[in-house]
């Protein structure tokens, strides 16, 4: 990875690229500051110019993963002609990632599960990320309801929370068992939540 990262002139960008890879694959406890420095092809002086500690770069990692996930949802929503197509596309992307071996779980949940001791700062940032994901889903479902594509009986906030719970639960169960069936069932479960009185 170092060779590719050397093409990035900004040490901050190289450090964050390494953080995205190492924290996702090895977790917080499994990644040291020295590994981040070596993997990014930077130096200790560069690391400490941008971050006071491993915890500080980890907080940036969490925020970046939260934004990446949200941007991904937004892109799928904008391209989908209806909420059902959005759900179909999202599940298609997840199954593709699972089959390729690239999906190791929700990056935020995976990170928090890898932290050995309780960390209030991580929890505060993670909570804000989850709330933001819920809001973007709720807003999308409200817009679908306004144009008549989503049943008027659907509580959009409750539906957004349930959709996220289904995603997180399926991700965790897949990681625990290695069984793809949890993602194969996910689409139908999400559609059921959003079907309202039309079920």
UniProtKB/TrEMBL annotation:
According to the entry, DNA is bound by residues in 32-51
| A Pfam family this chain is assigned to | TetR_N
User: Which keywords does UniProt give here?
Assistant: DNA-binding, Transcription, Transcription regulation
Highest taxon in the source lineage: Bacteria
Question: Which PROSITE patterns is this protein grouped with?
Answer: HTH_TETR_2 (PS50977)
- List, for all copies, the residue spans of the domain called HTH tetR-type: 9-69
A GO MF annotation of the entry reads: DNA binding
Q: What's the name of the protein? A: Transcriptional regulator
- What is the organism of origin for this protein? Leptospira adleri
* Lineage of origin: Bacteria, Pseudomonadati, Spirochaetota, Spirochaetia, Leptospirales
